[in-house]
Sequence to fold (542 residues):
Amino acid sequence: MLQTYTYPEFAYRPSPEQRAGVTRRHSVVIVGAGPIGLTAALDCAARGIPVVVLDDNNTVSVGSRAVCYAKRPLEIWDRLGVGERMVEKGVSWKVGRVFFRDRPVYAFDLLPEAHHKMPAMINLQQYYLEEYLVEACDASELVDLRWKHRLLSLQQEADHAVLTVETPDGVFRMEADWVIACDGANSDTRRMVGAEFTGQFFQDRFLIADVIMKADFPTERWFWFDPPFHRGQSVLLHRQCDKVWRIDFQLGWDADPVEEKKPGNVIPRIQAMLGKDVEFELEWVSVYQFACRRIDRFRHGRVIFAGDAAHQVSPFGARGANTGVQDIDNLAWKLALVLDGRAPESLLDSYHEERAFAAEDNLKNSTRSTDFITPKSRSSRLFRDAVLELSETEPLARPLVNSGRLSTPTPYIDSSLNTADEAGFAGAMRPGTACADAPVMVGGKPGWLLNQLGDGFTLLAFGSRPVASSVEFGGVPARVLSVGLDLVDSEGLVAKRYDAEPGTVYLIRPDQHVAARWRGFDAAKIEAALARCLGFQTNSKE
Fold:
């Protein structure tokens, strides 16, 4: 039990097919009602897909667990109607500071430019996040949350999967056209399909202590290397809501996880850090070891893996849940088009192509962070310490400091769904990149670009309105959104961030990523790019 939070208990209800004694086919069954599974349910529902969510528990996550949520996942949740509530409750921040021994040596700003709706990061205990997602799912007629439903086995047929499920009322079977496995790092679903999970475990342990206290620390991320209060190790500090602070202590591989969690050992560590006169109370304590690894294929037949069931990274950089949310953002629109028969099943293979690429990027960054934070040799430690010493005065050394590269979206720069540029463009908005937000005026009222893009294909057109109001391929439309007519670029930042001039057109995917861009409106070229983005006229990469 926590002092600052009361855990909800969600009602178990027997499944309708269990009561009737029949086997029913569902479009999508999601295994796991954590942040990724609940996000998957909301995104599928937003695209008109009815979903069933199975979870073997009946409450939210125990302990605060994940803490940091980055700008891009917040934008995704905003599209799903829950982002603003998370930001309102959470603690927004963008500055991080790095300390070496007893002095600050480096600071960074995650969002140095203004005029974005969502902050660079928020800190919010995972149980609040899940509670908000559950409430949003309960409000949707297309989401069927089934608590105390445990997946026992899974068999795959050519066009569906058969799931055997255990409940307090016994065991029954159900079928699904598609299964999205979001059941975490120890995924039973992964084992059931025989998927390989390869990578490395790191030989180190860390203590998490969530502490209730009134403190004068600013709302920033503070990371210490070899501080006087915890010699030879590292410490991380984050502020959460409800006056709760997260402190991570590196312990070393030889630490006994059972002993280290005892208050008699935790409290002296915190007192050494804060001073014995600072009053605090322990809210939650855990010891963890982490791994960097991923699944061999993100799709195994009718089963698609997302979140920690598909990949694991170290907690430094906040790449776990943030990456999983972007998995769902990539998958849901493709699944909707395949279920509607408007795209070939092979489109789903681009999910593996793009998200495995992102996973590799996250694994690389996570491994590098871990090697810097926990050097494995004397020479590595000497190099790290020299970098930290130089960073206090030498700007050239600061890019080498690695206390965890904070989560940013990985552009799908080589995706088979992209159409290459024909003309020259400046800036970051190349095909495969998540769209940048900017302030706009809509109907005389202030708004934001991403909210206007919606969740379908969009042609973002600059200058005079094109002749066509939309372009379509195979019954899938891309509607025109005219900058200057449908919305006003009130600060000039849309044009700046998209390197736009009169006539420029961007084809935006349903997950608000750039698919193609041109310096003029050409319906034939747009139609070809749309076809490519739907999985036609191209072969996905493995």
